[in-house]
Amino acid sequence: MLAVLTAGCTSLQPSATNSAATSPKRDPRVEKLARQKGAVERFFQPMTVREGDWLDSQKEPGETFDEYIASNPTLPTPERRTIYIQPIGTFNPQQRQAIRATAEYMRAFYDLPVRLNADRPLGKVPAEKQRKIEYRNNLQIRTSYFLDEVLPKILPADAAALIAFTNYDLYPGDTWAFVFGQASFSKRVGVWSLYQFTNPPTRKPEPGLLLDRTLKVAVHETGHMFSMKHCIKYECLMSGTNHLAETDRRPLDNCPECMAKVAWAMDYDPVKRYNNLAAFWTKHGRPDEAMTMREKANAVAAVK
Fold first, then answer.
1. Is 221 a catalytic residue?
2. Rounded to two decimals, what is the model's pTM?
3. In the chain, which end has fewer C-beta atoms inside a 10 angstrom radius, N or C?
4. Burial (Cβ within 10 Å: 0-12, 13-18, ≥19) of residue 200
5. Of the residues 63, 134, 149, 221, which is catalytic?
């Protein structure tokens, strides 16, 4: 990685396993999903790259719906359908509320059972898996500590994914200043941090902003765990981000291409999905977001 990179997310991408994929020519859902994704294009903006953004330094090819299907992606199976969320560290009430709401949002987003585990302490971190940023008096934990040493040991047999929240700042390698999160395709584990979401961490963000940032990173990293690559076509929840301002520009939903990936991978009717997301936003007092989701549901419902 280049030293200029400061944030974003990273994903470990060996050949996918645990796949239930079939050829798109044999899957009757694909043709209809292709039409349905066209019905929601008007809700999304084309990708624009600004100086310092993820795509300003990372040249990525992107991934279409058809390419995703052909990639033999890692998918839930009847034996592995539950998403587990594991808090690690200590959290204030505002952070805990964001974590609980994120678990609820992920149920609606992926149509999978989501279990929020009890907190775990950080544990004894090896010296080579941590560093101190002296000018900020900030302890950072290397993501490989979670991905290689902690999470695989507690991965439940029925887990489609095990994802950790931590209040500690993260870094994936010595050339990075920090990272929002990282996930492993093959190990079905991921970790993300709430530390950077206060920008700077000594200042408390308003609750809606903390929730939005937490939702975006959590759902994004989980998408990686189902083999979804970064989106470069639209401003999309699955687009890479290099800093908080870029994260804040991203929508709270997948673009048409990535919506179709979720619908196909989870066998999740897009109409039902949008209505479930609308119900979430209604419950959480965001009528504009709820209305947009209902409009998307109506748009895809009209596709025959």
1. yes
2. 0.86
3. C
4. exposed
5. 221
